[in-house]
Amino acid sequence: MTAAQFDFAPLLPAGLPAPAARWTGLAKYSFVGGNNDPDQVPVEGLIGAVNAVLRREGQTLATYGLASGPQGYRPLREFLTKKLKRDAGIDCTADDILIVSGSLQALDLVNATLLARGDTVIIEQDTYQGAINRLTRLGVNIVGIPLDDQGMRMDALEKALADLKSKGITPKYIYTIPTVQNPTATIMPESRRAELLKLSQQYGVPVFEDDCYADLVWDGKRPPALYAMSKTGGVIHIGSFSKSIAPALRVGFIVAPWAILSRMLALKTDAGSGALEQMVLAEYCTPHFAAHVPKLARGLRAKLDTLMEALNEQFGTAAEFEDPKGGIFLWVKLPDNVDTLKLYQAALAAGVAINPGPEWSTDKAYAGSRLRLCFASPSHEQIREGVAVLAEVCRKEFGVPARIANVEKQVRA
């Protein structure tokens, strides 16, 4: 006789997210997630770094925090101070940095420190799905600001701030991805960054700057970080090694004034992020990061070219997009009659995984015919084949495009 299985359902608190689906593997043609190019992971360099740092400092693994304290492995934080100064213009010390378990933990810590149910935040209309989902689960009111080809529009931001002030509402922060925005890949110019900081100070609202994709600018030139430009210390800056080295390492960081960083540190009760990952990154990145990233960017740019060529060949004018200045994503607009939430299901059944636009936007109608494609992970061959399959599915489901590979489809007798 088989015993009845224990039922946990009555014990679950209200407000939990829907249960996760079982993992069934990647799609044959996967254009989803923030995965990177497997051929560009510096495996040999990381192996050398593992051996060197473990032989030299392996015994520090016996101590929580590697004897560097709760903010993370000090050599990694010292590497970051030099990198951030060189690349983003940020002048900080190792004590201004908190190492976290990927930028997702950074989002959680900032939110846990600043937000309560019913608060209001301002974010970009099209933005990182992980940020939107977290705010929704927290019961926070989200105000989305439209973007143009230079990022968040300052006229729309100023109007939103004024409208909220007239209602007696002060947002807790303005969340922005100013350098290689996700999903639009725009880069906010320095002049607009100055406008954003001026509005932030005028209305007394801090800026939450997500710089996770900033290393992947094709020409290697980027405007200074908002954190670097701020004269008042009203910016919290986060970054990650997920896009520059490898996402599975789960190492990110927060740069912030001690008054707020200390409050986040008090909430980071996990006894420290993965120590070995931090040790290896510090050992590898100190001598190799500056040479590795341009090589990675060149490989990603080549994959983007393949993706854009494949879309032009298979979709023609039915697929609209701008040529990104960096990153790993292409934000694509299909004709208005295409519902990318439905396209997602049909495409997945055919072996193609895409990110439907509504999941990445505060305006579901605006994003209804848009989709985000990650071009970093699939090979050039998989990109071409996957786009061809996606076009065929789209044509069957929505009659778009009418032409595939610039050849009118023939009806067989």
UniProtKB/TrEMBL annotation:
Signal peptide: none annotated. InterPro entries: Aminotransferase_I/II_large, Class-I_PLP-dep_aminotransf, PyrdxlP-dep_Trfase, PyrdxlP-dep_Trfase_major, PyrdxlP-dep_Trfase_small. Its cofactor is pyridoxal 5'-phosphate. The keyword Calcium does not apply. The keyword Transferase applies. CDD domains: AAT_like. Pfam families: Aminotran_1_2. Residues 51-389 form the Aminotransferase class I/classII large domain. GO terms for molecular function: pyridoxal phosphate binding; transaminase activity. SUPFAM superfamilies: PLP-dependent transferases. Gene3D superfamilies: Aspartate Aminotransferase, domain 1, Type I PLP-dependent aspartate aminotransferase-like (Major domain). Keywords: Aminotransferase, Pyridoxal phosphate, Transferase. GO terms for biological process: alpha-amino acid metabolic process. Homodimer. Belongs to the class-I pyridoxal-phosphate-dependent aminotransferase family. This is PLP-dependent aminotransferase family protein. It comes from Bradyrhizobium sediminis.
